[in-house]
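Record 1 of the preview.
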Amino acid sequence: MILRSTAVLVFAVGALGLFAGVALLGRAPGLSPETEHLRAMKDREDAPTTVRDVDMEWFARLPHRAPMPERTRIEQQGVRMEGSVQRIELSGDGDLHLEIVTQPRQPEDRDTAYVVGEITQLWRRGSRAWAYDSLLAVFRPNHGGRQPWPGGTRRVRLTGYPNYDHPYDRPVSTWLLQEGAPRRTGWEIHPVTRIEWWDDDAARWRELMR
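->
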């Protein structure tokens, strides 16, 4: 009887954990329209047909906690941001999390404010060029691989969709910019659909084909 009760308890705890994990990924039934919308935006399979060049300040000006129609309008446009990757991490959901910074950072410098970019599993699937180890050699980040990389971090351009993933609107003070490494905004490039890197020898952008 005790063993049966224990087994039932273990099953219940496991089922609850599975549901919580699925809910966290936005794929459980009965979720809010906002959560389902966020999942749909992250799971986009088509690259944007038109893009606009943006920078960190453009992202910083985007509204937080905006009404859904305004948020949806922003999320439909394609964007392209130039900079370098300060950090690359493999997230628990299998996405590659990037910290995109405006100015390349030297090994002795502090981390600085960043915009998040996410390369989803869908866009990495079946591509060796977009695998974690391959992207390390392309981005040459300050964190996530060999340190320091010869020549420092690489200049890159990332194209994708703006996505409002977090209600993060903490003011970024001058002190934080100098002393910390704050996330600049709750908006992200998510998913990243195109990666380009600057070829110094050829003085041109090259696309990292999937």
